[in-house]
Predict the 3D structure of the following.
Amino acid sequence: MGKFGGTRYGSLWDGSTWLIVAIVAACCVIHLLIDRGVVAVVISVVMLSLFVVALRSIYYRIDGDKLVVYQFFIPTVYPIDKIKEVKPTKSVLSAPATSLSGRLAVTFTDKKILKSTIPLIISPVRRQEFIRQLLSVNPDIRYSC
């Protein structure tokens, strides 16, 4: 798969994201207090690093008529012309979104795109610009704010 261009939108980091990172860091510190060995330090540092890298690797690109969602640096391509609706959501479903606020639910006209009936939930920074760019590619998208 080739490299994608287009406009890059990072995933939003808010208080909930930082809280989750703090909880994972606290678990690593508690582990270090229980077992002060070198192995415990290595495991804790590796796990915390992997967790932060996984969160930082979530971002989105609008490349022509494609919405590209990156998770752990692996792109998944969605056709913008098949997007039916974009609306704010407070869903806590697991999704390629790093925050619990500022999420958008993206539903598609074709259920085969996601292979399920649940929407794609994302949390792009510069949300209004992101939505304007989606609408410029597909003006038939319903957007409810």
About this structure: The longest strand covers residues 83-89.
